[in-house]
Amino acid sequence: MSLMDLLPHFQQTLIDLGLSGLPHGEPRPVVVGVSGGPDSLAMLHLFVRVRKALNLAPYAVHVNHSLRGEEADEDAQAVEAIAAAWGVPCHVERVDVPALAAEHRLSVEEAARQARYTMLGQVAVRIGAEAIAVAHNADDQAETVLMHLLRGAGLAGLRGMLPVTPLSEYHLLAPVGAPLVLVRPLLDVPRAQIEAYCAGHDLSPRFDRSNLDTTYFRNRLRHEVIPYLEQINPNLREMLVRTASVLAADYEIVREQADATWLGVTREVGDDRVRFNLAGWRGLPLALQRALIRRAVWTLRSSLRDVSFEHVESAVRVGTHGETGAEATLPGGLVLRVSYDELIIAGQDARSPRLDWPVLEPGTRIEIAAPGVYPLPGSGWQFELRRYDGPRSGPAWAAVIADPWAAPLDASRLELPLVIRTRRRGDRFKPMGVGGTKKVSDFMIDQKIPAGWRDHLPLLVSGGEIAWVCGWRVDQRFAVTAKTGEVWLARFSSGGNEQTAR
What's 212's DSSP letter? Predict the structure, then answer.
């Protein structure tokens, strides 16, 4: 691309990105992030040159990160002077990035990025702009792709930066309160071309000495790693940019398939957990298994920048081969857990179950003094004890037996008051069909009751003996037999949320 065709290329790029105003309306405002360096200065100059043709009203915003003392102050003054000379409104904001980094436990780079995008978004909302233009170029794209490759990113990361991205996908210090987009109209323009443009138009960019500091990962790639690799492949930057473009198109196919699959295998998406149908997830191709795990992590921890390959592969391995109760650690304090028929991704402290079964907080004790209805605290479930007067054969009796949350019991063996409580260390009972006694804890493991549920599952106790591991098995000493006289029915119910137990 020659110096002469950068202007028409830039104008056409803005049109392609949907960034042009109506021919006969008010000029469309657009926020332009300007650091004062060659990329952003060239971009602002180009906006000034096309603003009449595209009916745009550029608005320059400069963020002083308080990192370089007087040099940073001089950058801000230079941007203000240039914007004034070109007839562009300008807003300059000073942000104490070191303090923000300490407060939010971020790296200085990340704190600066979040502060910058937050300020750009806030100004855009204030002036009624829908788009924010930033000056990332093709060399930046090559560095980003290589950086993600070295960190072990998946397709989403290897796409690099996109020409248009919702600002909501970025990590901000505070919500801006409006749907905005970030556009990169110079993303396919090499840095050398931009520098040539600045020289050809007598622009005087500012020089940020921190760009030479190779303790920053990106700077080390730019000044050391890429020049070394270019000795092997002189077209490395072009190749990386082309790779990003190819993978961005491929990613769209994977994303569409992942979106459809997400709807098919996801049972719950909450603020604190995502639950997948285990058999459905295990039946997916590996690429979709990985994609759904990454999506679940980002759904629960939107502030994460990267989810490493190692984390995802560990989660896939446990999800594919793990027994009930197996866990894999994920970033952001998340854990993947294998349940009996679900794959659950949740915070490490989110071990208590959802109220889709009757549950009790560990240590809860409810006294059942007489037949009646007893609500379970903290849930929409209730326990009912009543006399059963129906037939003991045929469809009606079969329906009672089939309900996992109902148990017909021999009334002559029950001793009031009954007690509903959670398990205790050393609990034993005589499960029907087993013969002999068994530890409740061992029974729960054998029945593949999810580990997170075991301390919450109610037990029905009579005279100190466990009569029913609720939802699973009646103790044979309390079971109805041919010799049973009076039958009492113990039953849990909710608003139609019962699930089949095993």
Answer: G
Pairing type for strands 459-462 and 465-469 reads antiparallel
Contacts of residue 128, defined as CB under 8 A and 6 or more positions apart, other chains included, come to 29
Distance of alpha carbon 285 from alpha carbon 262, whole angstroms: 13
Q: At what angle do helices 38-54 and 70-85 cross, to 10 degrees?
A: 20
pLDDT band at 496 (very low <50, low <70, confident <90, very high): very low
| Pairwise CA distance, residues 323 & 337, whole Å | 10
- Compute the 3-state secondary structure of the chain and give helix, strand, coil in percent, each to the nearest 5: 40, 20, 35
pLDDT digits (tens, 9 = 90+) for 413-422: 999 999 999 9
172-202 per-position pLDDT tens digit: 888 888 899 999 999 999 999 999 999 999 9
Tell me how far apart the alpha carbons of residues 86 and 394 are, in angstroms, rounded to a whole number.
90
Domain regions of the chain by residue span: 3-232, 262-347, 365-493
Contact 144, 237 (CB under 8 A): no
Q: Which two tokens stand for residue 404?
A: 């996992």
In CATH terms, 262-347 corresponds, of 3.30.1140.32, 3.30.465.60, 3.40.50.720, 3.90.640.90, to 3.30.465.60
Q: Which two tokens stand for residue 186?
A: 């110079």
pTM: 0.65
The secondary element (H helix, E strand) that includes residue 313 is helix 309-321
How buried is residue 215: exposed, middle or buried, by Cβ count under 10 Å (0-12/13-18/19+)? exposed
Q: Which CATH architecture has domain 3-232?
A: 3-Layer(aba) Sandwich (3.40)
Q: For the segment 211-253, what is each residue's pLDDT rounded down to a tens digit?
A: 766 667 788 899 899 999 999 999 999 999 999 999 999 989 9
* Contact by Cβ (8 Å): 429, 466: yes
